[in-house]
Structure formats: C-alpha cells, structure tokens
Amino acid sequence: MRTSLNIPGEILESFDETWQDEGLESRSRAVREAIQEYIERHTTLEGLDGTAVAALAFDYEHTLVIGDLHTVQHEFDDIIGTTQHMHHGEWCLETIFCEGSAGRIRELVYQLRDFDAVGRVNVMFLQPDHDNQTAD
Q1: Cα–Cα distance measured from residue 20 to residue 36, given in angstroms and rounded to the nearest whole number
Q2: Is the pTM higher than 0.90?
Q3: Which residue blocks in 22-119 are alpha helix, DSSP H?
Q4: Any idea where the domains of the chain sit in the sequence?
Q5: Topology of domain 50-130, per CATH?
Q6: How far apart are CA 23 and CA 8, in angstroms?
Q7: Residue 132 DSSP class
Q8: Residues with Cβ within 8 Å of residue 23, at least 6 apart in sequence
Q9: Tens-place pLDDT, residues 48-71
Q10: What distance in Å separates the CA atoms of residue 13 and residue 10, rounded to the nearest whole number?
Q11: In sequence order, what are the beta bridge partners of 125?
C-alpha cells in the first residue's frame, strides 16, 4: 500500500542518514521497521493490567510548557513517586518514576505525549520475576 506523509526536512534527512548507515536497502524498509516498533511499544503500553512500576523519560521545551507539566504532575501525584529534572538550554530532560495502576500510568503517558512542546515520551516498565516474589 502506498501512502504519503508530511515530515519536516531536517527529520527526514536524519532518518535517511540513519537507515543508510545501518545498511538497510530502502527508506520504505526503514519506515516499516519504525512503524512496527511504534506498534510494539503501544501494544505493550495498552496491554498492561494491574499494578505497575514505570519510569517515564521525556524531553520538552521549558518555556512553552513548564506550567502545564507541573499541573499534570500534580494531577497524577497518586502514582508519581519522584521526578528527576535536567536543564539543557531551552530544553529539559525529565524522568518520572511511577508506581500504581497500569491504566493510570497509561493516562499520564498519553497526557504528556499530547503536549506539542514535548518531543518524546519513552516508557520503561519494571518486569519483576513473579516466580521469585514472596507473599507478605
């Protein structure tokens, strides 16, 4: 199936350099792989149930969104254990460590991704070995 996309030139140039450096045979192949990775990440996020422990790492343009981000973080203080923040010029890198309902963590991820001034939101879930856990 053919499709068309609107992608800023600098992103497309970086994408082309990356797939060519990796030795892939075409941009189409690289796009298919990128889409598959996106689907896998989304499916993992959607498939979690029950209680979860996660780290959310995201970057954002500080002056455009800091007030709104603080508001969101206060709305999710029931699952946020701690945050870590680093400035780099106008951009910041932040990590939020969460524990609680997987659905609630998912809501937080989607709210963060909804901000235009947020570049990326990466999620890493703790995958405990349930066989080695003991009951209290």
Answers
A1: 18
A2: no
A3: 27-47, 62-75, 102-113
A4: 9-43, 50-130
A5: Alpha-Beta Plaits (3.30.70)
A6: 23
A7: G
A8: none
A9: 888 999 999 999 999 999 999 999
A10: 5
A11: 54
